[in-house]
Amino acid sequence: MEYLEIKGGNPLKGEVRIQGSKNAALPILSAVILHRGTTVLRNCPKIIDVVYMLEILKDFGCRVSWEKEELVIDASKLLDCQVAECYGRQMRSSIMLLGSLLGRMKEACVSYPGGCVIGARPIDLHLAALERLGAVFTEEPAGLKAVCRQPVGAAVSLPFPSVGATENVILLASLAEGTTILENAAREPEIVELCRFLNCMGGSVRGAGTSRLVITGVKELHDTEFTIMPDRIVAGTYMLMTAAAGGEVLLRDAPLEQLECVRRVLEQMGVKQEHGEHGIRISCGGRPRCIEELSTSPYPGFPTDLQSPLLAALSAARGSSCVRETIFEARFKIVEELCRMGADIRIEGEKAVIQGVPRLYGTDLTARELRGGAALVLAAAAAEGTSRIYQYHYIARGYENIIRDLQSLGVVVRYLRS
Ligand code: UD1
Known about the structure:
Largest sheet: 4 strands, mixed
Strand order of the largest sheet: 22-23-1-24
CATH topology of the largest domain: UDP-n-acetylglucosamine1-carboxyvinyl-transferase, Chain
Strand content: 25-35%
Mean pLDDT: 94
Bound molecules: uridine-diphosphate-N-acetylglucosamine
Distance between the termini: 5 Å
Helix content: 25-40%
CATH class of the largest domain: Alpha Beta
CATH superfamily of the largest domain: Enolpyruvate transferase domain
Structural class: alpha/beta
């Protein structure tokens, strides 16, 4: 069994360079297959989800190679449009291949773990939106089958600004005939990055960063080289880690303008932030302060992906805080683990009430998902004593090398197998 062993309780000191963005890289890797040629990506994070995505692309017939720090993908010939069951099950975000497979191959097949996938959450918004552009879906034993013989631009309005549904529409609309107007689109920076990438390869997406996107389909795209932006969630994790453990940290390349909301919360917590040319310097001495009631919400609101790290940081704050989760209903799984470290957190429906305690204590912990796992690492770095965090593989799905990063910040951490 693999686990991380962390000896916590010391203030952080050092610097970390923020890796490329996971949530930008995944839709961009999906977009790559829209083009019958070669794409070169820089700053693509070497995380497990990217590894899975590249395996899927290879299955389709793409040639993939890492040349030094550049990822080169040749999508000239695609032979298959079925996402292998093992990857479909492993990675829910493989759903975002629907739009690009339909655009390029006019067909797609994506497997799903059990249950009826049409009609109910979590992909109803994707399907309804893609149907507007001409896609037809059927449930087959192998998974969800999609066909779109002639994608045609349309007016689409999302009932909720789903990130994945917005990406799928952008992807299919980019090769559709005519113009698609997407209303109530997600405004996340990762959407803006996908649009920037498509425009770099000859696509036409306007309105990125607003809730109204205008996508004009093109006949073909061209070869391109592109550098993926830094990961705001990884940066936010280390900012909150500094709030929890104290110390002084430089986060190189942290995307400041995308972290406005997080920075306001850190300000309330009494965390000092100085930004310069190279990134942001965070410092915090002693216990952070509690915060006013906060709700997660779509961008530019507080990101749901940082809700668990925030809970961990507030666990040892002075006073009582309240955090509402409004995006994913089952995202308080980490609370049980934090309470085993001495945290005092009460869940009331979609609300977590956190009564800060003077200290968290290291213990054996189990990561159950990516961001909750990262939050446990954060709590372990701040806690007194030694923690063992099992199921490290969840964390490696989104953090390129959290061990190296922690070591750069002076945390005593080891990766072990028993
Ligand atoms: C993306 C991010 C994820 C982040 C989330 C919200 C990637 C790879 N993942 O996930 O890290 O936490 O945005 O910022 O970029 N929903 C439906 N029906 C749908 C689609 C979504 O009901 O068809 C619901 C979901 O269950 C969830 C909410 O809408 O409750 C938000 O989901 P969405 O914005 O689509 O998130 P993802 O694209 O899955």
